[in-house]
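idk why but the lab printer keeps eating my pages so im just putting this in chat instead. protein + protoporphyrin IX containing FE:
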Amino acid sequence: MLRGNRELWFAFVFCVLITGLYGLVVLWTRAIPAASDLFGHTLGIFGFILMLMTETLYSLRKRIRSAAWGRMSTWLQFHIFMGLVGPYMVLLHTSWEFNGLAGATTLLTVIIVLSGFIGRYIYTRIPRTMDGLEIEGTLSQEALKRARQLMSLWHTIHIPIGVALFISAFVHMGAALYYATFLK
Ligand code: HEM
Ligand code: HEM
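predcted complex ->
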């Protein structure tokens, strides 16, 4: 079960700290950090690594029985924390320009984060143990059935968006590194 919204607060505090650092760099250089400069690039790379961890770690913990370390609820909190901080760093990486494929990748990133909030809302409607197993009986059967149907509908939409996002992110990275970094 996800209790409270600690992970959202942690993510918020982290984003404020990163914004502070970004603000200092803007004041220092008197310019918006370019996506291909040291600071902008670092934000993109670290943000993307966090997003990759968001995409993979929770699913691995959920599906691989031999990897049963830590509570599922903690992993989901970690998933949400990284799923917010990573996209935020990537957003600061963009230098507020959204052309072509890189712009489309940013749009998919925003969509997956919004979709995550919807999923979180539905997920918390279903009573569960700390290990994420559903508990029968607390909700009326009709409401529980509807929440389960919604959750599985949400999964069938959310997962392909994630896959599309990572495919376009990898193509963007390849193209950006080739044209903006190595050809310079
Ligand atoms: C999901 C992750 C990412 C998103 C959404 C993203 C998005 C963007 C956007 C919107 C731009 C600005 C494009 C424009 O000028 O209109 C950009 C530029 C750039 N990105 Fe990313 N990025 C991501 C990850 C990365 C990573 C991991 C790297 C490096 C390995 C990278 C390298 C670059 C470079 C070098 C540029 C500058 C391109 C240029 O100056 O033409 N990006 N990115
Ligand atoms: C980079 C951003 C994100 C990516 C790539 C991502 C990806 C995924 C993936 C692939 C799953 C399916 C896990 C599975 O069943 O194996 C998932 C589930 C989920 N995600 Fe995210 N997510 C992101 C951000 C978020 C955010 C910001 C939230 C909440 C605010 C969130 C909440 C959830 C919830 C509640 C589930 C369902 C857990 C379950 O049914 O067991 N995600 N996410």
